[in-house]
Specification:
Order of helices and strands: EHEEEHEEHEHHHE
Shape: globular
Function: Catalyzes the release of premature peptidyl moieties from peptidyl-tRNA molecules trapped in stalled 50S ribosomal subunits, and thus maintains levels of free tRNAs and 50S ribosomes.
Number of domains: 1
Radius of gyration: 15 Å
Largest sheet: 8 strands, mixed
Subunit structure: Monomer.
CATH superfamily: Peptidyl-tRNA hydrolase
Protein name: Peptidyl-tRNA hydrolase
Keywords: Cytoplasm, Hydrolase, RNA-binding, tRNA-binding
Catalytic activity: an N-acyl-L-alpha-aminoacyl-tRNA + H2O = an N-acyl-L-amino acid + a tRNA + H(+)
Strand content: 15-25%
Number of helices: 6
Helix content: 25-40%
Length: 197
């Protein structure tokens, strides 16, 4: 569908996960929905929460898959197929433990980096050729490889204010992607959020 953009935030459904590091993708699309005054509705067909809006003559779908993180591709694949979505019109927002806390990085494509949500989407789309916006959550101080407890924990009080800045700047980057394309969005916004260094 030519004039449709799909913005997917990854996370886990349920109140106990809402403020965890793993759910910053959800929080980004929630931030955009609030900014654009779009309301969330459950869409059983896609096992997702969706918010619909229009911006500059384009239809925009915000999506929070309700499958749990590791099966996110079921929702994204079904939506891409249903809407016949050209993949350059898709962006996926995701937490990234390999990116320092307070940094954001949009890319036109790339590897999953071991992120199970992205792995699931790649599997269901059959390609890595879709944009992703990585939101840096950093790693625990001891830098261990097994990070499940870390990503499923909430941000600390000191981190919370920075997270708000990150989400606001990442929302600006999404708007730049919509208005000016991915190259402009990458060059203007990728990097550390001011005040988070």
């Amino acid at each position: 569908m030519e004039n449709l953009r799909l913005i997917v935030g990854l996370g886990n459904p349920g109140s106990k996960y809402a403020l965890t590091r793993h759910n910053v993708g959800f929080r980004l699309v929630e931030c955009l929905a609030e900014r654009w005054k779009a309301s969330w509705v459950a869409e059983k067909k896609f096992d997702a929460m969706l918010a619909r809006t229009e911006r500059n003559g384009e239809r925009i779908l915000l999506c929070k898959p309700q499958t749990f993180m590791n099966a996110s591709g079921e929702t994204v694949g079904a939506m891409a197929s249903f809407y016949r979505l050209p993949l350059p019109q898709l962006v996926v927002a995701v937490d990234d433990a390999d990116l320092p806390f307070g940094q954001i990085r949009m890319r036109a494509n790339g590897s999953s980096g071991g992120h199970h949500g992205l792995e699931s989407i790649e599997k269901h789309l059959g390609t890595r050729e879709f944009a992703r916006l990585r939101l840096g959550i950093g790693r625990a101080a001891d830098d261990r490889r097994e990070i499940t407890d870390y990503v499923l924990a909430p941000f600390s009080g000191a981190e919370a204010k920075t997270v708000d800045k990150v989400l606001n700047t990442a929302s600006d980057q999404i708007e730049c992607w919509l208005d000016g394309g991915i190259q402009k969005a990458m060059s203007q916004f990728n990097g550390a959020i001011r005040g988070s260094e």
